[in-house]
TrEMBL record:
Annotated protein name in UniProt: SDR family oxidoreductase
InterPro entries: NAD(P)-bd_dom_sf, SDR_fam
Gene3D superfamilies: NAD(P)-binding Rossmann-like Domain (3.40.50.720)
Organism: Fodinicola feengrottensis
Pfam families for the chain: adh_short
Lineage of source species: Bacteria, Bacillati, Actinomycetota, Actinomycetes, Mycobacteriales
Coiled-coil ranges from the UniProt annotation: none
Amino acid sequence: MTLSNAVVLVAGGTRGGSRAIAVQFGAAGATVYVTGRSSRAGRSPMNRPETVEETAEMVDAAGGRGIAVAVDHQDEKQVQELVERIDREQNGRLDILVNGIWGGDPLAHWDVPFWEQPIGDAIQLLRQGVETHLITSRFAVPLMVARKSGLIIELTDGTADSYRGSLYYDLVKSSVNRLALAQAADLRSYGITAVALSPGFLRSEAMLDHFGVSEENWRDGTQKDPHFIISETPTYLGRAAVALASDPDLRRWSGKAVGTQELSSVYGFTDIDGTRPDTERYFAEVVYGNKPPSENYRS
């Protein structure tokens, strides 16, 4: 796929990994529609300062064309109108859909048994983390089907069958992985690939704020959690997405759930510091094993 003239929809591209993916596609020369609930007209319930307009401007600065559209992906009408706009403005073309809608951090409860968690939060978590992806694919995929080509990237958390630490959170992320597999099966005969893509320990804007650090002094966060040493920037995830989209043998990944480290070992990209954080091995040997936290897991 030639990315210099690709049309990309990054759904939920306001911040974090989705924002970095949008920017990296911009750096590759793509036209990127960036959507989300947080805009300069008002914040979403996440109450974060990042906006879709800001992400679109970052896409422009990287060398692409960013188009910001405020969209609540739980609203079918808004999503349908978004896709109709892309259809109209891009002559029916949509090459890549990144389903990165989330906004579930305030709804996820940790270290609390699932039967003691608010069921309302659980249902809303499923709506925001799964239903939004279904709605977006339902309206966007027909543009790809008409052209018999395309790539769907489902952003997830985790590629293995191991438990993610909270029942409802685990249900959402495992459902997203399954959504990639199911879409791949339904769309294979139309030349469309679907992949679930996971970061490791993502050093997002919200995570930096949580640890009270910036990207410049992020290692200070290890004083609060020593495992922060294995964290990776959102750019690492963005580079993984671009590497996938640029692969002439892309279909080998169809239906699979893959992580940044696995893809970096295949394609050779690195994080912004030139390293390749191996989160999977770190968790196996340090978090669940007896080895001490170490930067040796950043090859």
